[in-house]
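Page 37, continued from 36.
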């Protein structure tokens, strides 16, 4: 035993001499912050020093176990820490089962990803999930096993290695807010193990839950109302922010933090390069608050980042915090305490859809104005759709800023996407418990944009323009854009979930179809809808790669286009993106000459944007 050593030395002692010099450098850079953060969170616990020493020794073992190839990746990334800000970065997100059948099948799809220029693949949850209902894999039973139908750990390691060779980073969800009720910790808690019970927030009666509920929100108000679940074997109530079978972890307990940090590093050592930190906003509970975005949640993430910077510095952390725009910048941390490298810009995503429904880009302009520039090695993540609903509540502040009633306004947007009043959209309202307020909307992008309801070639054309408009926004805003599987082929809603009892109550399954191989087969045929979509999207992707001005960190300014429906986005002095969010043509004045990136036309003085059209212009 080496317990006589100070904590940092216990990390070094676990390493072979060949790794110690590097490790000492990384410790010098990050260990003081780590110690300060952990002392702030857990310093009051008896035995804190011994706990910290054990943690550092465990980190040392995981450091020593990091495979050679990944250590080389760490070194390469250290030389170029802003590598993921390039306009050549392109993400793609898919379910393993829908995209490739299993992990080996995903590996066979690598050529498809390369053809699109993808350099980042987010595979939705593939670790062993709860038996039965499991929220699409977001109820994890074991972080150390792959879901058996999807493959093995060997398949996972083989896939990450193949992707690395292809220049594609694998991103995996790291579901750190909760575990499934059949995870060993939950089983232990139910069996009466006190240490396991302490991994969760368990209350003997309704006294505390009722006090917390006064200020808590609800994520699934219809199918999973309330935030606590009574469990007979616990003889009490356990905190369950999401579904009743997803038990929130108690990060006030240092054992939870230490175990989850080690879990993340074990996965990193299998070759996962980016972790999508699921539900990061919810990690810390405070009575009298909505228990989101608490300062301690940020300290936890900063501590996790310091650990990654010491043990696996090539790894990126991505915040999935679906919160109002003003709460987002905090997820990047500060110079002294960096936090996540990447954060979902869900307000931007939602505002794009709202602009489409309102035929007015006002919400987009407001969100862009509230979006600060980021530190040098940090990036927003932009997207058009994902596996979740489009949550409208993140837009409340912007939607109410000009004196409008934000609830009524966002409810109208949600109704629009549910097809109300003859709208072209084919989607579903999600979890709206109050008909006068908005929660979220579900549906594939193409269906929401009118492709499913289109009867004529003209209507189909407009629907395609609308889907491309939102993709153009995601590709040009200055972010890491992530495409959602199926959108590249304009796949529409999948209604089959209604026949599956374990999915029928959750309309997010509308947007979780299988990869459509028939559409893929005709992707180069411009006489087909998938071919039109794929071809036009590829053109945008290729255009984006050509322009340094479109990199995530390059400057961005929203200009006045002279019409509320038109968004004018300047990316430095040389590049201008014009987007018409309305069904009317609009003429926009131009200063000086511009060349249209799409067709090489020279434009002077003004240009007319057709309904739902978009132009990318560069200085000649
Ligand atoms: C995340 O999402 C996942 O993306 C969902 O698929 C999971 O169901 C959920 O966590 C539980 O693991 O609040 O900030 O409104 O946006 O559930 C994280 C629906 C979240 C999702 C919401 C969400």
């Amino acid at each position: 035993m080496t317990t006589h050593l100070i904590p940092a030395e216990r990390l070094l002692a676990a390493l072979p001499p060949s790794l110690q010099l590097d490790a000492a450098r990384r410790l010098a850079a990050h260990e003081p912050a780590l110690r300060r953060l952990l002392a702030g969170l857990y310093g009051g616990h008896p035995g804190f020093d011994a706990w910290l020493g054990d943690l550092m020794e465990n980190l040392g073992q995981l450091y020593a176990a990091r495979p050679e190839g990944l250590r080389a990746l760490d070194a390469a990334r250290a030389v170029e820490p802003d590598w993921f800000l390039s306009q050549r970065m392109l993400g793609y997100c898919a379910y393993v089962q829908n995209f490739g059948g299993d992990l080996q099948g995903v590996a066979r799809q690598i050529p498809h990803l390369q053809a699109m220029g993808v350099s980042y693949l987010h595979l939705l949850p593939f670790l062993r999930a709860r038996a039965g209902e499991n929220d699409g894999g977001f109820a994890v039973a074991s972080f150390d096993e792959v879901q058996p139908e999807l493959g093995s750990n060997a398949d996972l390691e083989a896939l990450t290695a193949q992707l690395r060779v292809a220049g594609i980073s694998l991103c995996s969800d790291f579901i750190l807010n909760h575990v499934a009720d059949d995870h060993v910790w939950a089983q232990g808690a139910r069996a009466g193990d006190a240490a396991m019970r302490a991994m969760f927030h368990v209350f003997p009666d309704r006294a505390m839950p009722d006090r917390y509920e006064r200020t808590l929100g609800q994520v699934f108000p219809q199918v999973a109302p309330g935030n606590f679940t009574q469990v007979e074997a616990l003889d009490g109530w356990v905190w369950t922010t999401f579904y009743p079978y997803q038990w929130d972890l108690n990060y006030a307990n240092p054992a939870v933090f230490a175990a989850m940090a080690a879990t993340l590093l074990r996965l990193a050592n299998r070759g996962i390069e980016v972790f999508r930190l699921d539900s990061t906003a919810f990690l810390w509970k405070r009575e009298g608050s909505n228990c989101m975005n608490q300062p301690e949640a940020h300290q936890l993430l900063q501590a996790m980042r310091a650990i990654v910077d010491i043990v696996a510095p090539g790894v990126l952390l991505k915040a999935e915090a679906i919160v109002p725009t003003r709460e987002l910048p905090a997820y990047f941390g500060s110079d002294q305490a960096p936090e996540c490298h990447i954060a979902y810009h869900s307000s931007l995503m939602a505002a794009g859809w709202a602009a489409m429904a309102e035929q007015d880009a006002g919400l987009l302009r407001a969100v862009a104005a509230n979006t600060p520039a980021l530190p040098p090695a940090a990036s927003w993540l932009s997207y058009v759709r994902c596996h979740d609903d489009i949550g409208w509540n993140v837009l409340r502040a912007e939607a109410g800023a000009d004196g409008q009633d934000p609830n009524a306004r966002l409810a109208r947007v949600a109704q629009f996407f549910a097809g109300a009043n003859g709208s072209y959209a084919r989607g579903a309202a999600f979890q709206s418990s109050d008909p006068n307020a908005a929660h979220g909307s579900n549906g594939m992008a193409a269906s929401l944009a009118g492709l499913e309801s289109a009867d004529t070639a003209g209507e189909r054309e407009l629907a395609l323009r609308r889907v491309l408009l939102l993709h153009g926004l995601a590709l040009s805003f200055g972010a890491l854009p992530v495409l959602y599987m199926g959108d590249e082929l304009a796949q529409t809603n999948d209604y089959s979930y209604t026949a599956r009892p374990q999915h029928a109550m959750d309309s997010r399954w509308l947007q979780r179809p299988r990869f459509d191989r028939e559409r893929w087969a005709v992707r180069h045929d411009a006489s087909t809808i998938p071919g039109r979509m794929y071809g036009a999207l590829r053109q945008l992707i290729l255009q984006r790669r050509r322009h340094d001005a479109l990199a995530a960190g390059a400057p961005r300014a929203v200009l006045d286009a002279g019409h509320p429906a038109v968004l004018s986005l300047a990316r430095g002095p040389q590049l201008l993106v014009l987007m018409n969010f309305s069904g009317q043509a609009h003429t926009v004045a131009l200063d000086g000459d511009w060349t249209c990136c799409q067709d090489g036309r020279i434009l002077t003085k003004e240009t007319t944007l057709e309904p739902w059209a978009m132009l990318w212009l560069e200085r000649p």
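The chain has three domains: 1-172+255-275, 351-554, 557-618. Flag for discussion at group meeting. The chain is about 35% helix and 15% strand.
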